[in-house]
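Page 47, continued from p. 46.
Same chain as before, 499 aa.
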Amino acid sequence: MHNDRLSLPTPTVHKIRRLTTGVLGAALLSTALAFGPVAPLTAMAGPTPDGFADLVQKVSPAVVMITTTQTVEAPTQAQPIFPDGSPFSDLFKDFPFQNMPGGEDGSPRQPRHAQALGSGFVISEDGYIVTNNHVIENADKIQIKFYDGSLLDAKLIGTDKKTDIALLKVKTDKPLPFINFGDSDKARVGDWVLAMGNPLGQDFSASAGIISARNRELSGTYDDYLQTDAAINQGNSGGPLFNMNGEVIGVNTAILSPNGGSIGIGFSMASNVVKKVTDQLKEFGETRRGWLGVKIQEITPDMAEAMNLPKAEGALVSEVPDGPAKDAGIKAGDVITSFDGSPVKSSRDLVKRVADAPVEQKVRVTVMRDGKEQTLLVTLGRRETAETGSDKGTDKPAPSQKDQVLGMQLESLTDETAAQLGMPAGSTGLVVADIDENSTAFDKGLRQGDVIVEAGQKPVTAVADLNAQIKAAKDGGRKSVLLLVRRENEPRFLALPLD
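Result:
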């Protein structure tokens, strides 16, 4: 339910995809191994450096080029067939279409090998390397080129598609130069940063800029991007973003661009996210995130007023499927205000903190319910293996009624209507059969086909139930009533003004 996406009206967010290349060049044929110093690489500079040469020299030995080889299957569609003597038949014999399986002699096309380039960096002297998942996804072979020109084959340890991070490992009998992660939470807007990688196949290039924004969210649940104006392009995927101490504070992942090239808006996954992921990939070969087992949404000021909350903070629980939260007694309509002893400011805040918590850990979760705080003890599950189901109501639906309320024509939900709306049999509520497009209800997002399940955090099965909750809200001096609405069986809360 959490939705805090970055609005992109004209430009498009591009993963800085692997740069496909046909020939890698003679430089990739070198096999000699010559490694630099073992100690973590650091460099110090002031807030307004005269240059970046010393920093580049220090960190370059730990930045790598990643070359992948992937087998691409031949297309399966058949060659067009034309009548004998047709001029098109001769045309296809002379100029066979490139995407057709048949060659000039009619023989099937063979699978081909495609190569691509990306970037990465070494995080340990024994050969662990971080890059983007999209750099190595579906690769049959992964090869690492080091700054000194030497080559090593890499093994995939694990990936995390949610953060687009992958961990690789090379075998070496000599220690490798490596770089440490810095604390991305300490990075400030305006701080100098250095990006390194292999843009457009150009080996080991450096670009500098500043952090232009923090805490950007693009499309993932666990997104936490640093935005930078340091030039990054195709081929920079997986490369490091350094602070002025020579520490990695981000992994270059995506750009905002109308044409796929750098326009000074790039995104690097924050190092504090990446380090947690790589630690788990190194230990388990996979991620193991905590799982609370709730669907949540943000609280708007209107909703806070309707629920008598002092502030529009916390995470509103819209649904509780079978899982840890339900076992602990958390209910739909609860507002989670504290998790493991720390305040919850927003639904995004809660999502990240639950994911960071260890699986099977017992945590105290404080909720606001009916104006009172309750603290519940929840044993977290594991997100990756969680199996959620749909709660099915057992009450019989009330007889069908129709009435006009706040610009909506409402009728009681029947099993037949529930089936048409994709809801389980036995579901109860009020169906919005029609709605005035000039009404406040329409402005607030209600649409024909929505099902109002609760009002004022009380179940509604008849129009009279809704009217009773509206009256109670008015009598209580509130300006709106909180509704729980299902659309395509997905729940969400909204505050409906009563004027």
